[in-house]
Amino acid sequence: MPPPPAPAAQAPRKGVLARIAESRNALGLLFMLPAAAFLIFFLTYPLGLGVWLGFTDTKIGRTGVFIGIENYRWLFDDPVFWLTVFNTLFYTVFASIAKFALGLWLALLLNRHLPFKNVFRAIILLPWVVPTVLSAMAFWWIFDSQFSIISWVLMKLGVIAAPINFLGDPWNARWSVIAANIWRGIPFVAISLLAGLQTIPQSLNEAAAIDGATPWQRFRLVTLPLLTPIIAVVMTFSVLFTFTDFQLIYVLTRGGPVNATHLMATLSFQRAIPGGQLGEGAAIAVAMIPFLLAAILFSFFGLQRRKWQQGND
Amino acid sequence: MTIDRRTLLKGSAAMAAAGALIGPFGARGAAAQAAAPAAATFTPEAGASLRLLRWVPFVKGEEEAWNANTRAFTDATGVQVTIDQESWEDVRPKAAVAANVGSGPDMVMSWFDDPFQYPDKLVEVTDLCEALGAAHGGWYDGLKAYGVQDGKWISTPLCAIGNAVCYRDSHVKAAGFTEFPKDTDGFLKLCEALKAKGTPAGFPHGKAVGDGNNYAHWLLWSHGGQAVDEAGKVTINSPETAAAIEYAKKLYATFIPGTESWLDINNNRAFLAGEVSLTANGVSLYYAALKDPAMKAIADDIRTVNLPIGPVGKPVELAQTSTISIFKHCKFPNAAKAYLEFMYRSDNMNRWIEAASAYCCQALKEFAANPVWTSNPIHAPYAKASESLRVNGYAGPLGPASAGAMADYVLVDMFAEAVTGQRTAEQAIANAERRLQRYYR
């Protein structure tokens, strides 16, 4: 008779670490913690601090006290602030539209089978690679009131009699900084959209062509709907970059003439750091948040509607 | 190595002797030092090292002399001094951040009333500055104002950067003027004549930190206007300000187009390119022409003169000023004071002022005897900067309000708005008044 089976040995009690290692939820939380800490430390904390500063009268070198919405009340009555809001919106809208149109056009061109295609793609990237300050310095010369190459050429051709006052006239200055921003921003849009174009199966275009679709119809009904998700992402970023632009304006005009090119970002810096009014500068920066949120929400709820993405809208 | 008082004194004596051998001011400097009462001597802390943030040099010789004096200090005391340079417009934000976070450079060579933005973050230097004043003939009142708050020295005035009208002599003569006008009315007539001759004048109406602010303040003050009164009450809305604006409009009509966009560098460039015959600038403009053989004709033709006197009846100008502050977060405040004391010694300071070629104007009266001020007639108007300058925010107290108002270009914008027709004179004044009230509340 076989001996009765020995009673099963009692499993040793697992340690806390072992139990965490076996728990999907606990592990997920653990792995997420560094990223969460990073986000809290580098994003949430500065943002929170900025919002808090906007409710104080903090000045450089001196801790402020809570003053509620006084900074915002002052800004609401400040014509320079409202001018910068207008400038920022004007700058963002026109520069973004132009960057999208020209970037898409370039992407479509580069998506064709062109000789030296890779060379052209590399050249297109140049404005994006050059440091912003350097490109701004170049535009500073291009738009100089006395030494502008554009004015010089036009005068030599007999088109104009005197140099164009690019950065001295308020509207000229606005369009000039927009032109510089477009030049700088096109590569980002063009290369991103080119990447999107290359994910569209060629067979769809060929099928549409066989069905008799014109090039415009193929673009409108095949290419554009399939490109919409990447357009949404690219334009969201493009709008955010443009809205928060600082370097280009600071080097080119420092907000002049007579604040005609001051953006919210440059005004925020001017009031907060050189001006020493940290609370007011923070309030201007915080005032940018609703506009930025609106741009992001537009992307999510407008451009990224699934039906539209699928071409059924 | 422990640096004690004896070591420092020995080192300083060695430097004075070395200065006598090598520098043009050696003998005179050493003699002056021997004659003058000894400045306060500070004993650097053991193992001290210092970091100075300064503005990028505009005159090469100035930097070389400053660095040579710094090396001599290190040789004498063993205290290493690292000098960081920042574009002159970026010194303010960087110093402000250092003051706010309590970390960064130990000392900063900054502009205008920057120390008044964060006085609580600075080491009191009353002992150093009073000793320096006593040893070197006393401080000029304008410079002193940039160092003292409530009777306490919070910063050590370093220099004023003189601002003068630089003009082309041949152009002025061709416009029918044998002598440069001394008053604002005559100056306007000259600018009109220059424009008629196709060789116009140009002053920046753009956001030029130095040149734009200097010009705007001169316009206001020369007509008797002032941003605030002695108590800091905003008084910009006055008939004098209106008169200043009316004058500015007439002057602006004679300028080369585009001055609304001019930043600090534009007037130099336009002048050196022969586009304008007249602007106001530091002496660096003259030296820029002098060092370029292609511009010899322009350099020979340049003359300088102080800005004209307006209805107020006396010369009133805002000169850029620089001070050196020691942050409280500096671990070696005595070493920092010893460094400054060393740099202000007669031979060292004289060597530095001479090397700056009239760009940096002395803060202490002893150095008015420096031959640089008489060695070239071009330098003469700049020599008066320390004596005649009016402090920012006149007639009110220096402080965060005056610093903020200037940084926000309140006066520059007021004149630019009016002369370009963006606003009427009344609207421009009202807008400036409102912005000033915000700073001076």
TrEMBL record, chain A:
PROSITE patterns: ABC_TM1 (PS50928). One of its GO terms (cellular component) is plasma membrane. It comes from the Bacteria. The keyword Signal does not apply. The keyword Membrane applies. Keywords: Cell membrane, Membrane, Transmembrane, Transmembrane helix, Transport. CDD domains: TM_PBP2. The chain crosses the membrane at residues 26-45, 80-110, 122-143, 149-168, 221-241, 281-303. It is found in: Cell membrane. Residues 85-301 form the ABC transmembrane type-1 domain. It is a multi-pass membrane protein. Signal peptide: none annotated. One of its GO terms (biological process) is transmembrane transport. Belongs to the binding-protein-dependent transport system permease family. This is ABC transporter permease.
Automatic annotation (TrEMBL), chain B:
It comes from Paracoccus contaminans. InterPro entries: Bact_solute-bd_prot1, SBP, TAT_signal. Coiled coil: none annotated. Pfam families: SBP_bac_8. Its main location: periplasm. GO terms for cellular component: periplasmic space. It is found in: Periplasm. Belongs to the bacterial solute-binding protein 1 family. Keywords: Signal, Transport. Gene3D superfamilies: Periplasmic binding protein-like II. This is ABC transporter substrate-binding protein.
